[in-house]
Predict the structure.
Amino acid sequence: MTESVIGPDTRDAELERPLVDAALENTWATASGFWSALATVDHKIIGRRYILTAFAFLALGGVLAILMRLQLARPEARLIGPDRYNQIFTMHGANMMFLFAVPVMEAMAVYLVPLMVGTRNIAFPRLNAFSYWIYLAGGLLLWVSFVLDMGPDVGWFAYVPLSGPQYGAGKRADIWAQMITFTELSALAVAVEIVVTVFKQRAPGMTLDRIPLFVWSMLVTAFLVILAMPSIMVASTSLILDRLVGTHFFNPAEGGDVLLWQHLFWFFGHPEVYIIFLPAVGMVSTLIVTFARRPVFGYLALVMALIATGILSFGLWVHHMFVTGLPRLGESFFTASSMAIAIPAGVQIFCWIATLWDGKPVWKTPLLFVIGFIFTFVIGGLSGVMVASVPFDAQVHDTYFVVAHFHYVLIGGSVFPLIGGIYYWFPKITGRMMSEPVGHWVFGLIFIGFNLTFFPMHILGLQGMPRRIYTYQPDMPWHGLNLFVSASAAVLAAGFLLFFIDALRSARAGLPAGANPWDAPTLEWATSSPPPSFNFARIPVVYGAYPLWEQREALSVADGLRVDRRELVVTSLVAAEPEARESSPRNSIWPLWAAITTTVMLIWSIFSPWAVVWGSIPVAIALIGWFWPKRVPEDEA
Amino acid sequence: MRLIVLLICIVMLGGCEREERQLRLDPPIASALDEVKLMPNGISGAPPEVYFALNRPYETNAYNLDQGKRLYSWFGCSTCHADGQGGIGPSFLDGWWYYGPEMVSIFASIRDGRPHGMPAFRDKMTTDEIWQLAGYIQTLGAYSAKTAAPSRNDDKQSRPAENRAPAAILFDQGPTPVHPDQGPTP
């Protein structure tokens, strides 16, 4: 580094390109070493950790699914006892929803959103670091308790009174409830970061109608998180209070309400489905554009559909509660609103089909997963319209029909696009391509394995097989299909195994990818793969929704930012006109300490209410360290 | 590092036994658990060896304590003892144990009955059920809260929940002790 050239207040416009890179690297890079790794606030490093951790939880949850399928493969199997089975299906659901699906989508956003909007780091990067550590702690809490035979056993939605003080023995339900607090805390933190990043840090010129669709979907998702998650945190905290200090939130004898739990849970739980689904929708829109080789058909319609889905998602929650004996008028209203969600979903499907129809599709692995998504999601959507009707739902409630339905929607609607997205962005994240032939095999195994596993469950449900049973008697007519389902689950698992192997192999030995291997149009492909610590040497300036297709020779950039401190451009909300140069926080170890002290307080508070009092002291100390004044004016920070 | 590993092991051991759910006892263990050695006057004594080999499961295991609470209502204990505050029968919350607070004494009281109206449950409950119930009743009268103790019922609140240690709050020195040899237990 030529220190002599870089003084205080050196601007990138004053330097030649190689010098800019070197100076920015010096300012933004995370040093090697253990403590630097713990203190980093680089959204790419944290995003990578988030993604890896979430996929580790996916693999663990998959192992649980395989265990359940082994147990159910034949009647009266003795592989797993009822108590362990209760823990296993609860863990599978809670793990997949709270530790995989939501975090992995936010993880993709943490990595991709700053790159896609052309900025250098996510907003509130230290909060970002904190959110990862909290998420990790919540995941460990759940899995360590499971290993200790203390895993929650009350179903992933932990209905009272089963999970309440009278029937939920021990600390199992508390561990579920506190795991919720951890994951929702981290999700809320990321949501706030995404909203601020999208609103205030977009590249100059990226007006609202030029925002990439994945970013739009993450923005809507972030608002859903902000509005939905507090409900479940209130619910889980009330549950712990009921169980630990004997409050009566859910005790009808003392004026509480059992159904209150279901309302609070599903007021979060239904938007949760869209918190998982909308990012996947954004990925599909992104992938289709790149591989259909044309701008998306109906950009405005797609954005409106995203927002409409987000708003409607708060008016559907009661369709999970049709058999609780609510008033008929209420049930009819929620039937109507549940069916109404098919309208924005249909708009999106037709826009994608139109884009593919008019484009010249390149049939690479990511696009295969998109096609698989459209196929399975339509089936899941149709069975969704079926269960939205009260009389039908009353018949199949708590049967395998529902299990089939939500796996079609969640795996078909969310995991397929996610795997496609991983194939698509893997070169950006690692700098190497995943194998195309292996990718075709992965798609074939997962797609066929998935449909053969979950389609027969519709039939099992119609034959009356209930959910959550650990075994069934030989004279029930279910064993043939159950054996078939278990065998198909092995195919599905083989597909995921092959995917993991290919990802691990490609990360080390894949073919090197250039900056833009797919010739994609959005800004994350404008920088090298993997991106440098500062993302962009000069902040791009955008004149359309597909900057890399519109300006093929050279991308317009803005200069005038300082290189001797972390600086990024703040732009206006609607027109993305540059407003200010803003400093971005440096690395700090305090988010980790804050996360550790918060973890101690939260876990301790399962056992004693005084933990909230005494445990908040270390948290306060960590936060004081985090926000300690640096004796520099705000503008220079 | 070694300390951390050790701590994790301790936590794991504690966790395993605190939450383990033994749904059905092995018959030999069940019959061994019946072999309590009582003092001649039927008060205090020694639990069977196997009780210690199992690491006192009926005092520390959350599931057993919770089952005990359920047995308390199933076998009509509240008819005489109410919610633990007593009625026709003595209270468990006032700090007084007529036959001492040891598990074996409570076990013997339930199994064999006591004078002045306490019936014998030996033919109505299995051995491990009696142990579970005994553990719960000891928890009711404990002076400090156990983390493994059950919590409140979904019912009208008449006293603090077991895990809030009602006995410590409601401790009552009482009128004159029944027998001059017996004071409040430590």
Q: What stands out?
A: The beta strands of chain A are 539-540, 557-558, 567-571, 578-583. The first strand of chain A starts at residue 539 and ends at 540. The mean pLDDT of chain A is 93.
